[in-house]
Every structure is written in structure tokens, then in C-alpha cells.
Amino acid sequence: MARTTGRSTTRLTRRLVQLYVGLALYGASSALLVRAGLGLEPWGVLHQGLAELTGGSIGVVSIVVGAVVLLLWIPLRQRPGLGTVSNVFVVGLAMDGTLALVGELDGLALRVPVMVLGVVLNGAATGLYISARFGPGPRDGLMTGLHQVTGRSIRLVRTAIEVAVVVTGFALGGSLGAGTVLYALAIGPSAQFFLRMFALPAPAGSGPVAAPAPGQAILPQ
After folding, report:
1. Whose CA is closest to 190, among 219, 221, 149, 151?
2. CA R_g for the chain
3. Residue 80 DSSP SS3
4. 171-181 core/surface letters (b: 16 or more CB in 10 A; e: else)
5. How many CA atoms lie within 13 A of 130 on its CB side?
6. Cα separation, 125 vs 3, whole angstroms
7. What is the pLDDT along the chain (221 residues), one digit of tens a residue?
């Protein structure tokens, strides 16, 4: 009994570490894309555009947007988890912290590798966060909630949301570019690779661990 409890505690500790390291790394990777200046991920374009409009930091804007999106879960009857609530705050704080540490970058010879590093780290962060299984991020919950309410496919709903946020963010001054394209092409395969790398072993005596729910298998944002 004591041995089983010890294993459960160790497993929970690992899940919590994966959750918060993944969220912090996600914010840091998004900040690197900002510093690269070659285009952001879809929600990053919106956050940057709103930051330009309001004069606030992009991390604080990310927190506010996450909180607003989380409120939209109420009519969609989605249930947040620890990871959902943590996502709202940790990603934005990590983003602003990284931007404070990493200054402006000059020259493509430096900006291109930082862009690539940001995309790869974002995939690793996604694998860490989702594998922890503490619930989807607020933006993914919005996607799955709309999928359930409208009956439309996950792919269609996600595409519609991301097109809307990119267009809005770009109109407000958000950055589109090679980084946006690279992110769109690479994040799926990258996240899938890291999901397998960081997958938690099944508890002793249990069957195989179930695949993540649709809302958890996309992105932690």
C-alpha cells in the first residue's frame, strides 16, 4: 500500500513538473518568436496587435485574452482544469520575463536561428503540457466547445478561429511573416513528436493510457 502511494505521489509530482515547465517554456518560446521579429503564431499575432493598441505588455495582454476566452467556456459548458487556469497566468508571465531577459536582435543571421528555436521549443512545451493531462488551455477549450455546440469539425472550427485572430491581430499591428508560416507547418509534427517523448507511463496494473481528448491534442494555448 505504501509503495503504491509512493508511486502515485511520484507520478503526480512528475505531472505537475511537466505542466509548469511546459507552460513556462511555452511563454519563453513565444517571446523568442517576438524577438526574432519574423512573424508570430496565430494567437501571438492577436496578442501583439492588442499590445500595440493598448500600450500594455504582450504577456499581460495574453493573460487578459486568456481570461476572457475562459469566460466564454461558461455558455459552452466546458470544465476547466488546473492546467487551464495555470495556462492563463503562467504563459503570459513567462513571456514577459523572457522578453525582459532577451533584448532586441539584429541581423537575420541571429534572428532566423532564434525563430527556429522558438518553434521547436514551442513544440516541446506543447508535448510537456499536454502529456501532464491537467486540462486543455482556454483557447483549445473554446475550440472544442464550439465544435460540440455547432457540430462542425475540429479542423474547421480551429481554422475559423485562427483565421479570425490572425486577421484581427494583423489589422491591429501584429506581426505576420516567415515565422508564422514555419509555425503553421512545423507545430503539428513537432508537438506529436514531443507528445510521444514526454508521455507518462501507465500506472502499475492499469491498461494503456488513453489518448488525449481532442481539446488537449492541439495546442496548450
Report:
1. 219
2. 18
3. coil
4. ebebbbeebbe
5. 28
6. 31
7. 555 666 788 889 999 999 999 999 999 999 999 999 999 999 999 999 999 999 999 999 999 999 999 999 988 888 899 999 999 999 999 999 999 999 999 999 999 999 999 999 999 999 999 889 898 889 888 888 898 899 988 888 888 999 999 999 999 999 999 999 999 999 889 888 998 999 887 665 554 444 444 444 444 44
Amino acid of residue 191? A
C-alpha cell at position 45: 499575432
- What is the distance between the alpha carbons of residues 117 and 123, in angstroms, rounded to a whole number? 10
Of the candidates 141, 137, 128, 133, which has an alpha carbon nearest to the alpha carbon of residue 191? 128
Number of other residues whose CB lies within 10 A of the CB of residue 120: 17
- Return contacts of 51-56, CB within 8 angstroms, 24+ apart: 52/172, 52/173, 52/174, 53/172, 53/173
